[in-house]
Amino acid sequence: MRILIVEDDDRIAKPLAEYLRRQHHIVDITPDGLEGWEWSQSGLYELILLDLMLPKLDGITLCERLRAASSNVLILMLTARDTTSDKIIGLDAGADDYLVKPFDLKELAARIRALARRTPEIRPSILIHGDLQIDPGSQQVTYAGNILSLTPKEYMILEYFLRHPNQVVTRSAIFDKLWELDKYSGEGSIKTHITNLRNKLKAAGISEDLIENVYGIGYRLRHQ
């Protein structure tokens, strides 16, 4: 799933994002409600993990604004408030579920799976780039009908590029999105993973680098 975390406490947001990325979700973080509203307007997100107490725009108001705009994105509210009235307010504002801090990450993952089962229509669609296809649901990659065997990091990089087909992406941006809390990796490791990914794509039959270098900046998905 493509998940947006709207949470102003890095001690919660960053470990949570890393945990979800290890499960191959695509995760973005924003620290305030107003920016969360702006990011949500892209229509890319299938789930928003929404803190109740936020700067600029609180979680309840953001939730109400999303529902007033007819957004059907899943909203799981995260809050330190553990009273029935607060839960009712959150659910009445349009939240699909409510989880009280501190919470167990495994419980959060189970609630996300349950929400996805309740709304099968939001299951991620196939990502297509020429003869290359990615199925985010099964995490299967094929080229011209043949299955490619990728490592988890290679898969995450390739999916990231297919979700940002018109953007020039720096190594630091990839590191921030996919490697945020990995103490044993650096930006140099991304270059190695991209090289290995390119070699596998070439071996599958792609004659030129699908991920091209943009001199002095980073990388870009080559147009087909």
Structure in words:
The protein is α/β, with parallel strands linked by helices and 224 residues long. The protein has eight helices and twelve strands. The strands form three sheets. A five-stranded parallel β-sheet has the order 2-1-3-4-5, with helices on both faces. The chain has a four-stranded antiparallel β-sheet with strand order 6-7-8-9, with helices on one face. Helix 1 (10-22) links the parallel strand 1 and strand 2 (26-30). Helix 6 packs across helix 8 (187-203) and helix 7 (171-178) crosses helix 8. The protein starts with a strand and ends with a strand.
Keywords, please?
224 residues; alpha/beta; five-stranded parallel sheet; 8 helices; 41% helix
Please summarize what this structure is:
This protein is an alpha/beta fold and 224 residues long.
Counting DSSP E segments of at least 2 residues, the number of strands comes to 12
Q: What is the alpha-carbon Rg in Å?
A: 19 Å
Separation of the first and last Cα atoms:
25 Å
Helix content: 40-55%
Order of SSEs:
EHEHEHEHEHEEEEHEHHEE
Give the biggest sheet.
Answer: 5 strands, parallel
* Low-confidence sequence ranges: none
The whole-number mean of residue pLDDT values reads: 83
Structural class, please? alpha/beta
> Main sheet: which strands, in order across?
2-1-3-4-5
Shape: elongated
Number of DSSP helical runs: 8
